[in-house]
């Protein structure tokens, strides 16, 4: 191993993630892993990394690190302001940091999550067959000021310079995502079912557990106790206030709120990259 980065500022929230921790939901451990799988996978392809390489997932910026060795990286995900020693840097293209360089991610313009991916990935301990951080169970390595991150000594390998703009995701102010009916879909009033797929909901905030939305209320036909159901990344729950919650990568594995739908797996990255006050439109898929 070799030292890669010393954390100067960890930003709003930064964690180490890979593709996730599978097979432990039955004991209450969520999959976790990256929130925007597309940006993660494309970044690893640019660097010719293994598909499950560990990266830094950074919410909204405010991140700064000092390079402790010469190494190659790529930044993917949200559009933002990136700098090496105050010289502007562009995302979706590989770049080199030399020992002593300062990497800064100041903030985002479109989207909300950045991925800093080193060639060969970050070296960290595997717990339950994954290196993803799940702080609620104290699993994984916490990113704090002063922490040193390590990587792997690599032989010279070829990598792609970057990804053409046509292949980069767009993070719009209003996004449309496909959804499937949930187990309690028919428990909602006909007007609410129609409202779900024909109205716009505003994202009001959230974290890796869940994103909260506000719009026209989604109402049950009758208020009654329901049996708790298994949940997953993309489950759409409706609490008593009638405003939907989309469960995210670190969400609980069982929930007691009615489940009106589930976001299509291929559209989860669009939800993950929402900025506060962006809007979402759900499009119901046919059975």
From TrEMBL:
A GO molecular-function annotation: ATP binding
SMART domains reported in the protein's UniProt record: AHS2
Protein name, UniProt field: Allophanate hydrolase
UniProt keyword list: ATP-binding, Hydrolase, Nucleotide-binding
Residues covered by the Carboxyltransferase domain: 26-287
Stretch forming the signal peptide: none
UniProt xrefs under PANTHER family: 5-OXOPROLINASE SUBUNIT C
């Amino acid at each position: 191993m070799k030292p890669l980065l010393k954390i100067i500022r960890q930003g709003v929230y930064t964690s180490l993630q890979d593709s996730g921790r599978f097979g432990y939901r039955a004991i209450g451990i969520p999959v976790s892993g990256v929130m925007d799988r597309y940006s993660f996978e494309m970044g690893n392809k640019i660097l010719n990394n293994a598909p499950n390489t560990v990266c830094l997932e950074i919410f909204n910026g405010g991140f700064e690190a000092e390079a402790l060795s010469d190494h190659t990286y790529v930044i993917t995900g949200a559009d933002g302001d990136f700098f090496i020693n105050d010289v502007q840097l562009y995302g979706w293209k590989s770049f080199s940091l030399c020992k002593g360089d300062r990497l800064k991610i100041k903030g985002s313009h479109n989207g909300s999550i950045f991925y800093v991916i080193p060639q060969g990935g970050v070296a960290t301990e595997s717990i339950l067959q994954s290196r993803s951080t799940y702080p609620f169970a104290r699993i994984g390595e916490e990113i704090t000021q002063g922490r040193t991150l390590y990587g792997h000594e690599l032989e010279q390998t070829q990598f792609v310079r970057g990804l053409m703009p046509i292949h980069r995701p767009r993070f719009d102010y209003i996004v449309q995502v496909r959804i499937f009916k949930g187990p309690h879909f028919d428990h909602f009033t006909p007007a609410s079912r129609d409202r779900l797929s024909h109205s716009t909901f505003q994202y009001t905030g959230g974290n890796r557990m869940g994103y909260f939305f506000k719009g026209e209320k989604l109402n049950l036909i009758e208020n009654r106790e329901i049996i708790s159901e298994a949940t997953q990344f993309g489950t759409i729950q409706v609490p008593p206030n009638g405003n939907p919650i989309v469960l995210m990568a670190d969400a609980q594995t069982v929930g007691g709120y009615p489940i009106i739908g589930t976001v299509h797996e291929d559209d989860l990255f669009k939800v993950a990259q929402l900025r506060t006050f962006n809007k979402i439109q759900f499009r119901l898929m046919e059975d």
